[in-house]
Amino acid sequence: MAKQKKLSLGIDLGGTKIAAGLCRDGEILKKVIFPTHAAAGFDSVISVILGAVEKVVDGHDHKDIAGLGIGSAGQINPVTGEVIYAPNLKWQNAPLGSTLAKALKLKVQVLNDVRAATLAEHRYGNGRDLENFANIFVGTGIGSGFVLNGQLVHGSTNSAGEIGHICMDPEGPVCGCGNKGCLEAYASGTGMENYVKAELKKGRKSLIKELAESKFENVRGPLIGKAAEQGDELALAAIDRVGEYLGLALANIHTLINPEMILLGGGMMALKQYFMPTMLRTMKKHILPVADQGRELVREARFENDAVLLGGAAIFA
Asked: What's the pTM value of the predicted model, to 2 decimals?
């Protein structure tokens, strides 16, 4: 009889919520979600994580747990587990891994959140049988992870795969990173919202203004989607623009590294029916025939809400 695989812990550490799960070989046995309360500071967030771990580990011996993997937004030092910079948590040089390892007496490893999600897709999801693929999350921002020759790519300074910050136009709109014309400034939820707000300020007529009760802070992705459902021209144009820029970026990825597949996930997939046709058409137009060859080139990621948690747990699976 085969020996049962060890348990491992996975954590999705975000700016607003912390999800913790006790896992075994891609299955979440128990999961809890708590508010992050990032504004209360590092020690407070550590307390929330420890409380979440205590809840999911309840009834199990620590010696049965192989380790704790954390997917966190921001720039991570994978060797020390330090969060070098995470604006959503307001952290700089935060000793996340070492603090938790000391408190829990467990092995702890910290990974960028989208890389953790990519690991989940590679082990258990739609990248399971792939040796070379890109995993792109299009949400408030745009993040990505790459697997080449079966290995997660980190890069020489641990910043590989920042696809959201490739430059589409050096004179384009300002991105959250401070540079101009990043893909994220065009094709993320934030980029789409900013485009709509700019058009409304120019006086463009749209149902969005009425739905938002003339308040710019109400112009968010779901509201733009609601206007698109009703055939609003600005909403449809804004979402179509996302598809055009994503299509260009995907063509560039296929031309550059020739992956078997690009997986797409993230909150913007709620609007996929509007932007995917344009995205695929644009990609086909700009991709080299040698990279295309009539194959399926883009697929949805399998995991949505649990990708980062499962990827964290997969480190010790």
From this structure: 0.90
